[in-house]
Amino acid sequence: MCITIYSKPDCVQCSATYQALSKRNIPYQIVDLTKDPQALAIVHAMGYQQVPVVIAGTQHWTGFHLDKINTLAETFVGLL
């Protein structure tokens, strides 16, 4: 599973999301919405207005959600 985090610079919730994923050894890629207008259009088309937007397989959410990150960690353990 590839996890994508749509973010922007100096975003506290984005940083917290990166740290939580890294701490749990969950790989992710970051897409900076200030540098990628197509990605911004995708995020807006999904109905999101704030960052981070986390896409993990068929799941997606906005903001920092430790409960969802913990669920992802359980999924990744099952894949190893």
From TrEMBL:
GO MF entries: electron transfer activity
Domain of life assignment: Bacteria
Alphabetically ordered keywords of this record: Disulfide bond, Electron transport, Redox-active center, Transport
A single GO BP: cell redox homeostasis
UniProt key word Electron transport: yes
Chain ranges of the Glutaredoxin domain: 3-61
Family per similarity comment: Belongs to the glutaredoxin family.
Role noted for this protein: Electron transport system for the ribonucleotide reductase system NrdEF.
Identification of the protein by name: Glutaredoxin-like protein NrdH
Source organism of the structure: Photorhabdus australis subsp. thailandensis
Lineage: Bacteria, Pseudomonadati, Pseudomonadota, Gammaproteobacteria, Enterobacterales
Gene this protein is translated from: nrdH
